[in-house]
Amino acid sequence: MNTFLHHSENRGHAQIGWLDSKHSFSFGSWYDPKYMGVGSLRVINDDTIAAHNGFGTHPHDNMEILTCVLKGTISHKDTMGNERHINAGEWQLMSAGTGVQHSEMNQGDEAVHMLQIWVIPNVRDAEPDYQQIERDPKKSPNEWQLIAGPNDNAPMHIRQNAEIKAAYLENGHSLEVKATQKFNYVHVIEGEIDIAGQIVKPGDAYLFDEDATIVAKENSQFIWFDLNN
Questions:
Q1: Which of 1, 136, 144, 177 has the fewest CB atoms within 10 Å, measured from its CB?
Q2: CATH at residue 194
């Protein structure tokens, strides 16, 4: 089995007052040629946004942009006419397509903790789209929760041959990963897990290409990116 452990301490780190961001892959002013993404997965930013601050209106195009809110509420507004609040336990998928502008603001009195995930689409210049779901894996522990995928069974449709699944695994429980595509990339949010004998801790990620069993060494939350390219 081909594997790679991406240690949390090897992530990029940007702090600009109201934003504390850790970059799994090269982003903004942080560049490392060893960390340019995995297949179509291009960005995982672990962002903490201070109260009454956020990202002002800015453009995107030809990117699938997912937001996973872990704590607090982020307020989204875009040029498609969407004005939505994304609460902890909810996910958003914005398909930028031909181009869209949006803002993401923390209007609350406490910091927001969220993940920003970018996936390169397999179709360019499509119509922009917005989707949002509630999928808190802590409400249904010890099973995979499908977040996004290319097929009709997915709660959010992503323009790529990729599935994104989340799980909250209680201490001592296990989940199977079936390697049906080229890359399996598991990113740990909290806790500690064992993947085929490899310990993976918060902020770490593990890349592998064969079936594996995930065992929780303590209560743990993580995301599995099942990537074809």
A1: 1
A2: 2.60.120.10
Instruction: Residue 200: name the closest of 192, 189, 208, 190 by CA.
Output: 192
Residues 6+ away with beta carbon under 8 Å from 81: none
Residues 6+ apart with CB under 8 A from 152: none
What confidence tens digit (pLDDT) does each residue in 98-121 have?
999 999 999 999 999 999 999 999
Binding-site residues for Fe cation sit at 58, 60, 102, 104
Instruction: Specify the residue for token string 């942080």.
Output: 30
| Residues of the domain holding 104 | 3-227
**Burial bucket for residue 190 (CB in 10 Å: 0-12, 13-18, 19+):** middle
Per-residue pLDDT tens digits for 206-225: 999 999 999 999 999 999 99
d(CA 105, CA 115) in angstroms, rounded, equals 14
**pTM > 0.70: yes or no:** yes
Q: What integer best gives the mean pLDDT of the chain?
A: 97
CB-based burial label for 124 (10 Å; 0-12, 13-18, 19+): exposed
